[in-house]
Q: What sequence folds into this?
């Protein structure tokens, strides 16, 4: 075989390969969104039950903003086809 045959394989983008530590080796959009939702619920519950009213409302708002940003990032990754891509090992 020549060296050209090896170069014909599609290479994943560095950005999508770099976020593999967040989603695992075989990612799915559902698992990503589920993890974001669970982490959001846990943080909101801890802030609401453990802190006084003004501080808990501020931190809950910040957690919800971060959750919305995470959902948007998940939608962008899904639009780029990251969750549909086959895993590296067959």
A:
């Amino acid at each position: 075989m020549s060296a050209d045959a090896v170069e014909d394989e599609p290479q994943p983008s560095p950005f999508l390969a770099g976020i593999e530590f967040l989603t695992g080796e075989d990612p799915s959009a559902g698992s990503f969104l589920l993890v974001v939702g669970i982490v959001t619920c846990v943080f909101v519950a801890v802030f609401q039950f453990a802190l006084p009213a003004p501080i808990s409302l501020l931190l809950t708002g910040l957690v919800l903003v971060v959750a919305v940003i995470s959902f948007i990032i998940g939608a962008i990754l899904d639009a780029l086809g990251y969750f549909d891509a086959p895993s590296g090992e067959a």
About this structure: The radius of gyration is 19 Å. The helical segments are 3-7, 14-18, 20-23, 29-50, 53-79. Residues 41 and 63 are 9 Å apart (CA to CA). The mean pLDDT is 80.
